[in-house]
Structure formats: C-alpha cells, structure tokens
Amino acid sequence: APRAGAPAKRPDGERVATAARLLAEARKPVVLAGGGSRGASAELRALAERLSAPVVTTLNGKGVLDERHPLAIGSSLRLAAGRARAQEADVLLVVGSKLGEAELWVDRLAARGTVIRIDLLDSQIAKNQDADLGIVADARAALAAILDALEQHPVDAAEAQARSEEAEASVAETIARVRAESNELSPQNTALAEHIAAALPERAVVATDSSQIAYWGLLNTLRVSEPNSTPYMATYATLGYGLPAAIGARIAAPDRPAFVVVGDGALMFSMQEFITVVEQRLDVTVVVVDNGGYAEIKQNEADAGIAPVGVDLVQPDWAAVATAFGGTGRRAADAQQLAAAVEAAVAEGGLQLIHIDQAAYAYDSGEARR
C-alpha cells in the first residue's frame, strides 16, 4: 500500500494575505509552475483563471495545467520566447521550482518584476532567483489559501472579461513564437515531434531522455492534459533513462498508454530492458528516432574543430532487434506511416518498436496537432 505522506505544511496567513494583494494589484501576472505543483492542479488552474494569469511550466511541472487551456503556455522555459513571459511579468508566482539552469538553458531567470515563491523547503525560496515574498508551505495548501484571500479583492466582471481575453491572446502569440524559435533551432526535430504528438493516443505517458528529439522537439510541441505525462530527467541530462521510465509508468498507471521516444544512441544504453517488457507482459511502445549516432556530441566536436570521434554509430536493424526480443518492430518514413504504426502498436500491445530513420523521413508529410 502507498505510504502516508507527511502532513501538508500550512502557509503563514500574513504572507498569504500579502501574496493575494500583490497578485490582485498586478496587471501582467504570470504563474511559473514546477514539479512541486503537480499535486495542486485544480488550485493552480483556479488561481490562473481568477487572475487571468498565463502559466508557463518547467519540464517537471509539464501538464499541471492542461496544455490546451487558453492560459497554458507550456513547458517552454528553455526557449527565449517562453522564458520572456516569466521575466517580464510585473508579479511572478513561482510554485515548487528551484529554477535550475537545466530548466532554463541560461544561468538565471533574472525576473524583473515582483517575485513570490512557494516551496516546501525554506532553502529553496531564494534558490537561483531572489524572492520578494516567500511562502514555505505545501503548494496545494498555499494556493488554496491565496484563492480564499483573493475574496477580499473583488474584480469588476467587465474588467475581468477584458483581462481574460487579453491574456489568452497573449498566450496564443507566445505559443506561436515558441514554435517559431523551436523550428529555427531544429526544423527537422520540430516537424517530426509534431508528427509524433499528432499520432499519440490521448493520455499517453511519454518517457524520454536527453535526446535531441526530446529537448529540441517533443517537449516543446507535445501538449499534455495532465501532470506526470512526460517522465524526463532535465537536471541530470542522462541517456538510457527513457525506456526504464516507460516501464515504470506502465506499471504505475496501467490505464494509460506507455511510450518512450528516444534517439538511437540513447536507446543503446538500456535496450536490454526490452526483455523486461516481454517478461513482465507489459504494453510499451518504443519510438526510436535514428540520427545515426550522437548528433549533439558530433556538433560539439565540429564547433571545437575536432574531427568526428566515436559519434557515428553502426546501427542494428532496429525493427529486427525488437522482433528478436519477442516484440514487434515497424518502420515509419512519413507522418501517415507513423500514425498507422502507432495505432497498430497500441492495438496489438506487448513490446512494440517504431524505427524512424531521420535521414530518410519525409518531414513535410503531415500536419501538426493543434
């Protein structure tokens, strides 16, 4: 049976009242939600809607607000367009995040407005970003208390509607800028990620790791409806995490389709776990995006004037490998084949592998999911 957690840490009432006043007076509030907010989805949504506040998340907080909600920017802090919304807010509410470099891709967020931080640990309140007001408490309890305190700050209905429409329009503009920035950084990974996202079934758990298809593509484009949908290890940037994470996700949430989307070099770190999927009779679909090796390291070598060393990998027949382990291997060369392969994999169950050769893939063959 699950172990009982520690009692929720209650927020300080005076600090809650101050937070509510600052947020009520804000003209451009933004909520930045980290992994510590995952147990407070309902409260976070209610607060965002009450304030007409756009929500940007870390990768660990991805989905805490349904990413199809009109106030959801998504998990785009790594991109300048997403990061700018947090930096430019006149009041920024940070919930359960240490704002680490791995989430930001810059040394510090450097928010320019008033910063309110909610965290279970006092040691995190000023971590990587000074706070004007810190609330040491459970995220759910703190957000609920702030919502209650906002009752003392009523808003005219017409003004609230106008602010909501303005905020939603600004979110749509930010999402478009994020997409353009992602496409500029890596057009192939962005296009392929959009095809993968469009093919995935609803409520899929999609594990990944430090593969280019993840951080340059899927984590920017995939819009998830709930937290705990994209197991990822942003802090450690490891290879080999994705497949074991997908196995764990399938065991923990058997009602949700389990996928792993990784590069070929990353999959070689843990492909022995194919036999675990078969042995435990699990349904896990592996999408291996084959760019021929360690493309990021190859680029780093080129940037340093080093000829490629140990980065161009000899590839197995990936579909045949899955079959040899007792699963089913497929190949997809365009968006239509990819969608059909995903549908067949989910229907058939067991160990499924879909191999995508990036050098041969037709990137202009499909439409992105909206």
TrEMBL record:
Assigned keywords, A-Z: Thiamine pyrophosphate
GO molecular function ontology, one term from the record: thiamine pyrophosphate binding
PROSITE patterns from the UniProt entry: TPP_ENZYMES
Keyword Zinc: no
InterPro entries found in the cross-reference section: DHS-like_NAD/FAD-binding_dom, THDP-binding, Thiamin_PyroP_enz_cen_dom, TPP-bd_CS, TPP_enz, TPP_enzyme_TPP-bd
Protein name: Acetolactate synthase
Residue intervals of the Thiamine pyrophosphate enzyme central domain: 16-146
Pfam families: TPP_enzyme_C, TPP_enzyme_M
GO process terms (BP): isoleucine biosynthetic process; L-valine biosynthetic process
